[in-house]
Design a protein that fits this description.
The chain is mainly alpha-helical. It has 10 helices and no strands. The relative contact order is 0.11.
Length: about 260
């Protein structure tokens, strides 16, 4: 094994060890806090949360609940990705639309999630509330990120493409894609976490039955802190897992398109 191949492997192992150590430190801090407080009602210990999660995993209702929220939040996320991407291209090609969309984007980014939830609850009811709120929160992220990526493309590359008569599909692959791909990855990372936070918040406020948000509301109502934290842990893990999968998918597509 050469030095050039050993370095990335060593860095990967170092990152894994550092991540594991950080996780253990935070778990220890959580356990210590639970012991010092001494009241499971206020802060359940990691062991209590894992026990609660283990119990949930044995129930079919748990998977139906997770599937319910997962489907609606991902629907909102991917709809936001598509519409945000399309509108960013339109705004890039026709600058007038960037100015036209600007007030709307600013309003969506600045307005509290609760305001949208209350208005959306009256319009669509609680069933599809998470999908709509996830869409509204993530849509500006994709629009802004991809528009910024396209604007960052080196203009000299276009001049060279004109001189050498590069085809339009090749311009997308070799000029736009290297600049836009990092912005797309960033949008997916930010958007996925935001869609889960906004979607679950919408379900809690809307008291959506059969959803993770609905279960969180019930856990709070009946003072089941361990179950509340167990569902919170599920949301965090799902968000991180989907974020990683999207990043891998984008990297794979980028490699295929630039071959």
């Amino acid at each position: 094994m050469t030095a050039s191949t050993m370095a990335p492997e060593a860095n990967r192992k170092k990152k894994i060890i550092t991540t594991a150590a950080s996780a253990l430190i935070w778990l220890a801090a959580w356990q210590l806090s639970a012991v010092l407080i001494g009241q499971e009602l206020f802060l359940a210990s990691p062991l209590s949360v894992l026990k609660s999660l283990s119990g949930l995993l044995q129930k079919a209702e748990f998977y139906n609940t997770v599937g319910y929220s997962l489907l609606r939040i991902l629907t909102g996320f991917f709809a936001a990705a598509v519409f945000g991407s399309v509108l960013s291209v339109i705004a890039y090609k026709l600058p007038f639309f960037e100015t036209f969309f600007s007030p709307f984007m600013g309003a969506v980014k600045a307005a509290p999630v609760a305001s949208f939830v209350v208005l959306a609850l009256l319009a669509v009811g609680s069933k599809n509330l998470a999908a709509l709120i996830s869409f509204l929160m993530v849509f500006p992220v994709f629009y802004t990120s991809l528009l910024s990526g396209m604007k960052s493309v080196d203009k000299e590359r276009f001049e060279a493409a004109e001189v050498f008569g590069m085809l339009r599909r090749d311009r997308f692959r070799f000029i736009y894609l290297p600049y836009v791909a990092p912005h797309l990855k960033s949008a997916c990372q930010v958007g996925m976490g935001l869609s889960w936070k906004a979607g679950i918040s919408a379900e809690v406020i809307g008291i959506t039955s059969g959803s993770i948000g609905g279960k969180l509301y019930e856990a709070k109502l009946f003072l089941e802190t361990a179950e509340l934290l167990a569902y919170t842990l599920v949301v965090v893990l799902l968000s991180l897992l989907l974020e990683k999968l999207l990043a891998l998918l984008i990297c794979a597509m980028e490699k295929i398109l630039t071959k």
